[in-house]
Amino acid sequence: MPSTQATKVEATLNALFKDSRLDKIKMMKGAAKSMFRPIQPIDFEHVYLSISSEQGEDLTRLIVQNDIKQVVEFGTSFGISTLYLAQGVSETGGSIITTELIASKANKAIENFKKAGVNDLIEVRIGDAMETLKGHQDPIDLLLLDGWKDLYMPLFNMLEPNFHNDTYIYVDNANMSDSQVFLNSIAKSGKYAIQFMFGGSVALVTYKLK
Ligand SMILES: C[S@@+](CC[C@H](N)C(=O)[O-])C[C@H]1O[C@@H](n2cnc3c(N)ncnc32)[C@H](O)[C@@H]1O
Fold first, then answer.
1. Ligand 1 centre distance from Cα of residue 102 (Å)
2. Does the N-terminal or the C-terminal CB of the chain have fewer CB atoms within 10 Å?
3. pLDDT confidence of residue 86
4. Domain that holds residue 14
5. What pLDDT sits at residue 101?
6. How high is the pLDDT of residue 38?
7. Which residue has the least CA distance to atom 27 on ligand 1?
8. Residues of the chain whose pLDDT is less than 50?
9. What's CA 115's distance to the chain center, in Å?
10. 146, 173 Cβ separation under 8 angstroms
């Protein structure tokens, strides 16, 4: 990545991480809205819920070291994780499709990608990932699962035909109960190897037979 672009990405990430420090307060407000019904993504319209900088750097490294080009992300939020993915694909000549249910979050993410000077590497699809990624035609080298956890399984099943022997599936919040159900189910298939990282909060899924 040219140094001027790298500086812009870094500055954008710093500003976003700074802003995300208010997440805990905003999350409590969101959770309070859902006292009498199940929590919904819209309750967290103003909350980042982002990956950590260490996870982001790990994702960038994974992309560069494995020459990953075609990245699909479920759960854009305000674009923190996508900026790390962009740092990776800018080195490999790849691109990213990322999808976000809440339009106001997706539009903010697009602004952030423009600020960081990486918007030409990223296609943002606004809407439910089960619709925006339906009929996806291209191979997927890396799938980042970081949206609502009950969709990990159906989304994985929908996109599995696009995987190949060297596909990586990076599962955030791997220790949450819906994620565990998903991971147990794919482990049972016998086709996938699962490596836990970051104290079990991330799972990296690969094909067993390469
Ligand atoms: C944990 S946050 C993503 C954080 C982001 N990956 C980051 O690290 O900066 C999860 C996001 O998934 C979005 N989401 C939830 N259900 C979705 C769906 N069905 N389709 C697309 N996005 C969805 C939520 O609105 C939320 O912004």
1. 8
2. C
3. 98
4. 3-207
5. 98
6. 79
7. 77
8. none
9. 20
10. yes
The number of distinct structural domains making up the chain is 1
Of ligand 1's listed atoms, the one at least distance from the Cα of 99 is 21
Mutate to test the pocket of ligand 1, among 100, 156, 159, 201 (most ligand atoms within 8 A of CB): 100
> What's phi and psi for 90, nearest 5 deg?
-65, -25
CATH number of the domain to which 149 belongs: 3.40.50.150
* pLDDT at residue number 75: 98
Measured by CA distance, the residue closest to atom 4 of ligand 1 is 50
- Residue minimizing CA distance to atom 19 of ligand 1: 128
pLDDT recorded at residue 99: 98
Ligand 1 centre to CA of 192 (Å) is: 25
| Strands of the chain, DSSP E | 70-74, 95-100, 122-126, 142-145, 168-172, 192-197, 202-207
Rounded distance between C-alpha atoms, residue 182 and residue 1, angstroms:
35
Q: What is the pLDDT of residue 124?
A: 98
Of 104, 52, 55, which Cα lies nearest the Cα of 77? Answer: 104
For Cα atoms 162, 91, 56, give the angle at the middle one, nearest 5 degrees.
75
Pocket of ligand 1 (CB under 6 A): 41, 48-51, 75, 77, 80-81, 99-102, 105, 128-129, 146-148, 151
- Which of 43, 50, 101 is the best mutation target for the ligand 1 pocket, counting ligand atoms within 8 Å of the beta carbon and taking the most? 101
| pLDDT (0 to 100) of residue 210 | 60
